[in-house]
Amino acid sequence: MPYGVKKWVTVFGKIRIDLPVDDIPKSWYNITPDLPEPCPPPLNPRTKAPAGLEDLWFFPKNLIAQEISTERFIPIPEEVREAMAKMSRPTPIFRATRLERYLNTPAEIYFKYEGISPLGSHKGNTAIAQAYFNKKEGTERLITETGAGQWGTALSLACMFFDLKCTVFMTRASHDQKPYRRTLMELYGAEVHASPSNMTEFGKKLLSEKPNHPGSLGVAISEAIETVRKDPTSKYSLGSVTNFVLLHQTVIGQEARMQMEAVDKKPDFVIGCVGGGSNYAGLCYPFIYDQMNGKLNAEFIAVEPKAVPSFTRGTYTYDFGDTAGMTPLFPMYTVGHNFVTPPIHAGGLRYHGKAPSMSVLVKNKVIKAVAVGQYEIFEAGKIMSRYEGVVPAPESAHAVCAAIDIARRCKETNEKKVILFNLSGHGLLDLGGYGEFLDGRLVNNCEPKELALSDLPNISKT
Ligand SMILES: *Cc1c(COP(=O)(O)O)cnc(C)c1O
């Protein structure tokens, strides 16, 4: 155990567990070689053959190498560790003692607080790594799309750190609803376009048909990829779902493991919210590694919104990674790429699919999935705000909600369990949603009657 850990733990009475900055992990943990069954490869949508380098032309080769790597540990470059230190890594774990008292539960509740980053969420962990590896490969400009804005914000600053230009296509609906997000990205040096835009042929076509088109993530991805195709100095960047993004997030769980060890606790429950899967994979994969090696006996719980229930109601099959049908096909739990997501406030959880590696773990019952509703998560966010002072992002409030449920169950059964959850980001730029909740204007009926499972790509039917 590192000396610094014990020292800090004693000082803060086990309520706040900090690691010294030198303990930022030195490698990422790749779960690929440890999966209970191999993850099937992505496929070329036309030939249905395993996707090759040319199918992933919009990513740099060094990130593709990480995507398909079977090495268990991948070293983190010093420049990346240094930039992560600027983003408040290592992040603290807090014990939610006031929340425990409010719930009157015998359970102990701990949360890893990723919202402490100046970017407000965990997304900087991969943004920094992607900017670094792109710079090394000679990329001059990164292009991406953003819905809620957290990803665009993280990539903007990461590009600034590594001297890259950054272009962000932001869905017009969010762009108009959340002008502060745009300002933040521009402050961090990015060029931001409301999508559909006049910058691309696709955008121009949509605007000529419908001048006030609200946009969608699918449209923004199409615009981003068209722009990458036209500028050979540029590459595309993604904030979730791919193996390399999940890999970069494993700093979260490696730190958490050291922190829990420092107070001699082993979690009985490891919980996180899941959009594409990156923050939760980041927390739980290192613990799953311990579990597979007989050092832990925990329950792993992935929390998704009832509005986008790919784990709990969707199907495990090959589907497009994007709504526009331009990417390779990935093996994953999905609600169908044509699914029209209800307009929930947790914008980061609106993606139609789940990361392939996490899908394998859910399919094999290593991870259990639960779904919660929009009203419940805002209620949990309110409790978290009032008793711990932390306003969770609506995405993160899904994890808070599940943790509170379990703590309440522990009260009924009088079990002294240890609950650990990831608080992936703060909600200080999501106060619009909290306002609706407090005023009683929140739309709660977001459960879709039907999913879009009838028009999945053909491979699933062969
Ligand atoms: C983007 C985001 C998520 C969802 O993405 P994952 O890849 O599943 O982590 C969750 N929480 C916050 C705060 C986000 O910004």
Q: Any key phrases for this structure?
A:
462 residues; alpha/beta; Rossmann fold; 2 domains; 15 strands; globular; binds pyridoxal-5'-phosphate
Topology:
Elements: H1 3-11, E1 16-17, E2 27-29, H2 61-67, E3 73-75, H3 78-86, E4 93-95, H4 97-103, E5 108-113, H5 124-136, E6 141-146, H6 150-161, E7 165-171, H7 172-177, H8 179-187, E8 191-195, H9 201-209, H10 217-230, E9 234-236, H11 243-248, H12 251-262, E10 269-273, H13 278-292, E11 299-305, E12 315-320, E13 329-334, H14 356-363, E14 367-372, H15 374-388, H16 394-413, E15 418-423, H17 431-438
Parallel strand pairs: 5-15, 6-7, 6-9, 7-8, 10-11, 10-15, 11-14
Antiparallel strand pairs: 1-4, 2-3, 4-5, 12-13
Helix pairs in contact: 3-5, 4-15, 5-6, 6-8, 12-13, 15-16
Bound molecules: pyridoxal-5'-phosphate.
Pyridoxal-5'-phosphate binds at residues 121, 123, 150, 240, 273-279, 348-349, 393, 395-396, 424-425.
Low-confidence sequence ranges:
7-11
What count of helical segments does DSSP give?
Answer: 17
Q: Considering DSSP H and I runs of 4 or more, what fraction of the residues is helical?
A: 25-40%
- Major sheet: size, sense and barrel closure? 7 strands, mixed
CATH class of the largest domain: Alpha Beta
Distance from N terminus to C terminus (CA atoms, Å) equals 52 Å
Q: Supply Rg.
A: 21 Å
Ions, cofactors and other ligands present here are: pyridoxal-5'-phosphate
Q: Find the structural class using helix and strand composition.
A: alpha/beta
> Could you say what the CATH topology of the largest domain is called?
Rossmann fold
Number of domains: 2
Question: Hey, roughly how much beta strand do the residues contain?
Answer: 15-25%
Question: What's the overall average pLDDT, rounded?
Answer: 93
CATH architecture label name of the largest domain: 3-Layer(aba) Sandwich
Tally of strands: 15
